[in-house]
Amino acid sequence: MRAGVTSIVGLLIHWSKVTTFTARPARTPLAAWLLLAPLAGWLLLFVVAPTALLVVISFCERDFIGRTVYHFTWANYVRAFDPVYLTILLRSVGFAALTTAVCLLAGYPLAYFIARCGARARAYLLVLVMIPFWTSFLIRTYAWIIILAHDGLVNGLLVSARLLAEPADLLYTPGAVVLGLIHNYLPFMVLPIYASVEKLDRSLVEAATDLGAGPWRAFQSVTLPLTLPGVVGGATLVFIPAVAMFAIVTLMGGGTTELIGNTIQKQFTTGRNQPFGAALGTLLLLVFLAAFAVAGRLGKSGGRGSGLSLHR
Description:
2 domains; MetI-like fold; mainly alpha; disordered C terminus; two-stranded antiparallel sheet
């Protein structure tokens, strides 16, 4: 019986080896296409097709009741380059850049600290960073509205501590909008930087210290260049959605802060001007592509600066 089982096992092993070497080359191309097909279909249906439709509509007109008329025109782009809308676009880029900078200044030390903790503490800290993802960003935004309201927690504490004579207008201001953006996008900065710092070889930093580099010089010459891909990835994940965000701007700005996201949203809803909204959306898409191009160039040069000399 044992001999029979042994022979059967031997035949199975031999068969698996034969099929491994003979069948794999014939199945690999088909298997690769089958694995790629769902992703390609998803991208084609939910990314390529809507983007193409957006570009097509941006060259159309609208009739007197707001319906899209498929008649070619450049009027929407001429209007989009009006100084009023260019100012809104530049303001949106400025808000997104400020959000990205604050998230980087706050997120890099936090990510570095988490990556240098022990395995148990690191797991708990990562859970704390990801807890905001467990709830909707709208719920978190409404929580900030309650906190920053005229009779909210912050004003109550400041008035009780007699730091303010009367409640301040903290909500529906540009500062409130930036605060909401930072709170919602900070984890997107922390996690990519953590991934880069966690893979950083400490012996390189120790070697820089042995060669006479101080903490700042070692950070500038070794740590920062090697973790630059994480910085670039985090900055991209924060900047791009922050430019187009309209829900936080509407809820925490109260209509007093006009950015490109809520401008486009108004054109598609109350303005009933889908072609012009599509033109603004296409220009915003070009801003996204420019941001991706800059991020790609910075990411490729991420490890090149680590070879700099540590001596002046």
